[in-house]
């Protein structure tokens, strides 16, 4: 989340701008002062080594190319999408022909194998009358290439706003955008089918937290939304989110992206910055997508004589109740609470001035 000059948004340009600016400042201060907090069971999956990728703002796991992830820079780059493998090496650079992104913030994979690049950022508090989505086929071969993309014009039913999250449902193909103008963001639903010949109006269907990215599970039964320090899990039912509860999220330099692993059993969190790391965090209990949970329950557990677990086989952990974190986050929770308190204080003072 940066301006076209590469600087963090300037505070003091309207209530939403003050909120976003205060958050950006808090992020930098806490990142400098606090040690990283690891989510339970997490591990660094890879480090993005490409010196061109300094503001990785979106992440999408390829289904066509196992172990490959698509990413892109935030702004001040160009019409480029990068394929990065599980070692952090860039294996392909895709250039979108004739496209001049203004503030690309997210990338998502559709059920037909198309990638969607979301040029939806608006750090000037909703100054753009419309934003754009660019759709192109995921390349069959991984090498540097230039491709044609279909452009979709997007407007929100209640006026312009800033956003950083695009989620394409993996079953229906419907597009969803989560905004971040307000203290409480909004989840917006696009038309059943996007049109390239006119304007696509997105309608608000739910309130969601202030977030930087989101992703559907591969089977479409779970939605995850992340911010800098917090992440939420939702059950997706009848075209709407039902909140399950908080998720473990790693403490990162500037947490900007999230995607499900292809098997749905873990999340991968990304960050902006040079040599940024992508961290894998396993899922369990209600946070597991339905298909992954069904596979888990169908897997027989080795039994010892008498019916108990075999020696050396750990007993299954109980499912986490909805609405509660999957595990203790210790310092991570304290950091998050501190951020919320600081933002609330700044916002109240700005509102009263």
UniProtKB/TrEMBL annotation:
Listed Low complexity bias regions: 291-301, 311-327
The keyword Transmembrane helix appears for this protein: yes
Keywords: Membrane, Transmembrane, Transmembrane helix
Renumbered residue ranges of the record's region Disordered: 282-327
Record field: transmembrane: 330-347
Source domain of life: Bacteria
UniProt KW Membrane keyword: yes
Protein name listed in UniProt: WD40 repeat protein
